[in-house]
Amino acid sequence: MRYREPWSLYPRKSKPGGSTVWYYRTYDESGQRTTGRSTGTSSKTLARDYCARLYQEGRLIPTPDLLFEEYAKP
Questions:
Q1: Residues 52, 39: contact at Cβ < 8 Å?
Q2: Are strands 20-26 and 7-13 parallel, antiparallel or unpaired?
Q3: C-alpha distances in Å from residue 21, one per residue of 41, 44, 60
């Protein structure tokens, strides 16, 4: 069985001729990929360090969005 990292990194350019920002994607409980989230860095090394720090703190995988009906409960 192949080992899979808890996150994957990919670059995205902001505009033509603009700077490159690194984004990361994680996997949810069912194994599906989540939407990309910005690391706010233009360096792959800094992006990897950012993700590793979030992973150690337990904040890498985002919590599910709160539905309005759950928010409106007393």
A1: no
A2: antiparallel
A3: 6, 9, 18
Residue 1 lies in a domain: no
Whose tokens are 């990194």? That residue is: 9
Q: What is the pLDDT of residues 1-55, one digit of tens each?
A: 677 888 999 999 987 778 999 999 998 888 888 889 999 999 999 999 999 999 9
Exposed, middle or buried: residue 55 (CB in 10 Å: 0-12, 13-18, 19+)? middle
Domain residues for the domain of 40 are 7-71
Contact residues for 4 (Cβ-Cβ < 8 A; gap 6+) = 27
Indicate the number of domains in the chain: 1
